[in-house]
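Batch job 17 of 40 flagged for manual review because the log was empty.
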Amino acid sequence: MELRELSLAVQKGSGKQSKQLVKEALEQGLKPADILNNGLIAAMGEIGDKFKEGQIYVPEMLIAAKAMQAGLKVLAPSLKAEGVEPIGKAVIGTVKGDLHDIGKNLVKMMMDGAGIEMVDLGVDVPEEKFVEKAEEIGADIVCLSALLTTTMPAIETTIKAFEDKGIKDKYIFMIGGAPVSEEYAKQVHADYYTTDAAAAADVAKKVLQEKKIVQ
């Protein structure tokens, strides 16, 4: 089968077809890494481009991301068996006091689609939980989301918790959310601010690839 067919199924948001095509590709002996990169990840790359160009909107992105995850679920055991590693690891969550999760969920899905292993801490996450989980899994990136001006200070508090432990430099900090800005990112010593989920996935992928080259 052509992996382009899988990519199109994901872009259309067909989870059922995505699962079936991944299964067929495995049965035909295609390498799990090829299915991942040229089928699932390629699809989400195109979805991100279409979003940035205004051809699709958030609902279409969500549907495509869910279809990608449906295919990835079928593929995951084969990837593990073949020793295919994610390009990096990230923890993500909405900061303490904030219960919004749509933007955070979309960033998680798009980063999943970029080949990054994501650990979702959920909403209303205290700073110590970010620190604990990032250390536990050996994360590369810490993603912090805030959707309210009243909860924005929790981003700074969380980053400061890493600074206080002397471990901030181990991680790349990415922040986002409606009230957040590039200026605020500089103010709280975050490394990156992105305007949307597609941009977040692009930045994360680029940063991780550059980090790998340096290592």
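Reviewer: the log was empty due to a logging misconfiguration, but the result itself is present. The longest strand covers residues 88-94. Unflagging and moving on to job 18.
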